Amino acid sequence: MTIQLNETLHALLEPGASVKVLAASSEDGTPHVVFDDSIHLDEDGRIVFLERVEHSRTNRSLLRALWFNRNVSLGLLAPDGRSFQIRGKPHRAVISGPAFEKYYRQVTAGREDTDLSTVWLIEPESWIEETYEVRRETEEKGRLPRSSSF
Fold first, then answer.
1. Which one of 7, 25, 53, 130 has the minimum C-beta count within 10 Å?
2. Residue 129: strand, helix, or coil
């Protein structure tokens, strides 16, 4: 189920606005993470990740998630210390056509030492703020009241 992300997340997904981490699982379930500022939102509200290395662990993990309908996770760390996690599912791996060409031109403009393998489109399904204070407050609400009668 695709969701719309709020303004804060839209802003943090702009280039250079936050530290962005994409996590997916390998075949044996081992988490694999990559830090990449190419991660952003497209005009349809999908998360875009530009993979430059065709046979990378990231590409394999995302392909496995696409094939087996598995979740991936995106972590965002804002300059002010707030952090967020977005959970989603790969929607499509684009390897040709107008969208691929658009990103290919962006990635390779003026650079001979880079390439583009896959444009990943990820459907966001849920998000949560992971900032310490927010997590602590949420956890405290879920606990039984403290008692001094022990």
1. 7
2. strand
The CATH number covering residue 68 comes to 2.30.110.10
The count of structural domains within the chain is 1
State the chain's mean pLDDT as an integer.
90
Asked whether residue 57 carries a pLDDT value surpassing 80, the answer given is yes
- Residue 146 within a domain: no
How would you class 145 by CB atoms within 10 Å of its CB: exposed for 0-12, middle for 13-18, buried for 19 or more?
exposed
Sign of CA dihedral 13, 15, 19, 22: positive
Residues 66 and 130: their CA atoms lie apart, in Å, by: 26
Does residue 108 belong to any structural domain of this protein?
yes
Residue 62 falls inside a structural domain: yes
Share of the chain above pLDDT 90, in %: 71
